[in-house]
Write a structure and sequence with these properties.
Belongs to the radical SAM superfamily. Anaerobic sulfatase-maturating enzyme family. By secondary structure, the protein is α/β, with parallel strands linked by helices. Helix content is 32%, strand content 14%. A nine-stranded mixed β-sheet has the order 6-5-4-3-2-1-9-10-11.
Length: 418
């Protein structure tokens, strides 16, 4: 477990309300509740007490743009009050349907990084929320034309991948590359409600094989890698060992040397960063949680053992005058609930974590364990989630390092990582 000097990301849960009802959404369908100004102001003030030199305020929900006026007030307050010695980063997570011209102009003016949830081509996006592909397709084209700098420097597209989306995943990535999207994040759904079994692993393999080839061509042609899970910090040479798919090598010929395993020590390792305390979430009622998924509006029906563990990971109210002490007590508590620790004991139908070559580099959300229907085993990992991690990490290992992006005309250029 790491011990940061203090938190660096504060997720602000502006509202549990949403203008969509996505098929894989992990939120309860409950009465929408929103954060009030006093709570948001207290949360922003709290962020300035961190020892970390950079603080990121991430506006989320629900759909945070349903509370656009509150968001604007918070952004203005934060930019006015941020201490001179701190760097302030602002992030918006949105489904994009409320990104009107005035909203985009505000985000551009205040340097707000925008994470657009958009799953790609109609077979994927329309399954998520019917009638949304055409609107988001028009939005991307208009944004690129009217706000080219914002489009290039501030926009990230986030694909959420359920099993049903696997057959069109590579085509969706090609679609976003064709739109010249600068950053494309891909994450699996936390649960896989039907449509997945381990005999479909070759289909997932083939999707990543195509993404690998598309990204390699993009790197050679444009010297950039928009697909985040493939990014590496430095570029040594434009050459790679092609992955093996279905018993044959994919892509151009290269060295047949087997990549090194990264298992290393099998000492107990955290499943994720939740117990590090680097990222916190302020719920609509002002309660601070160790993870965005622990917010009250995000708690889908889960296994009882996970609900009990989550209950023990709350911190305090955002307005608690003794918050910093309680925060550091949380960090120093060395909490090790079974689902959030003992990574070496975790397993899926694809094997045991301690025997996996990516044991050290794999990050697995413990909440996914509690979403397996009727699961009572805190060590049981969802098969789809495991397959996604194993395959994506292997392709990342095989992808060539990338050149650093150089600042132009004195303007710093973002260097994001997956």
């Amino acid at each position: 477990m790491t011990h940061p000097r203090n938190f660096r990301i504060l997720h602000l849960f502006l509202t549990s309300g949403c203008n969509l009802g996505c098929s894989y959404c992990f939120q309860y369908h409950q009465r929408p509740v929103s954060m009030d100004w006093a709570t948001l102001r207290a949360a922003i003030d709290l962020s300035f007490t961190t020892d970390h030199p950079t603080i990121e305020l991430a506006f989320t929900g629900g759909e945070p743009l349903l509370e656009f006026d509150l968001l604007c007030r918070g952004v203005r307050y934060a930019t006015e009050k941020v201490p001179a010695e701190k760097e302030l980063k602002l992030t918006l997570m949105t489904n994009g349907l409320l990104l009107r011209e005035d909203v985009v102009a505000f985000c551009e003016r205040h340097g707000i990084d925008t994470r657009l949830s958009f799953d790609g081509l109609p077979p994927a996006q329309e399954t998520r929320a019917a009638g949304t592909f055409r609107r988001l397709d028009r939005f991307l084209g208009g944004l690129r034309r009217v706000h080219p700098i914002f489009f290039r420097d501030r926009l990230r597209v986030s694909i959420t991948l359920p099993p049903a989306g696997v057959p069109v995943l590579a085509d969706s990535v090609a679609y976003f590359l064709g739109h010249e999207v600068a950053e494309i994040a891909i994450a699996p759904t936390l649960d896989a409600p039907g449509g997945w079994s381990c005999d479909r692993v070759p289909v997932l393999e083939e999707a990543f094989n195509r993404i690998f080839a598309l990204s390699l061509s993009h790197l050679r042609e444009k010297c950039s890698v928009p697909v985040l899970f493939l990014r590496k910090p430095e570029w040594s040479r434009l050459q790679t060992t092609p992955p093996v798919v279905g018993g044959r090598k994919a892509g151009a010929a290269g060295s047949s040397e087997e990549p090194r395993h990264d298992r290393g020590s099998h000492a107990p390792r955290p499943m994720c960063g939740v117990l590090s305390g680097e990222s916190l979430t302020v719920d609509t009622d002002g309660q601070v949680h160790a993870c965005l998924l622990f917010a009250r509006a995000n708690r889908q029906a889960q296994a009882p053992f996970l609900q009990d563990e989550i209950a023990g990971l709350g911190i305090a109210s955002v307005s608690d005058p003794d918050f910093q002490r309680r925060y550091h007590e949380f960090i120093e508590a060395h909490l090790e609930p079974p689902t959030f620790s003992g990574k070496q004991n975790k397993y899926s139908s694809l094997g045991r974590c301690r025997e996996c070559r990516f044991y050290n580099s794999c990050v697995l959300c413990p909440v996914s364990i509690g979403l397996i229907p009727e699961n009572r085993d805190p060590n049981r990992v969802p098969d789809f989630y495991c397959a996604f991690n194993m395959i994506s990490l292997r392709y990342r290992e095989l992808f060539p390092p990338q050149p650093r992006r150089v600042a132009l005309a004195g303007r710093p250029v973002r260097q994001s990582t997956a």
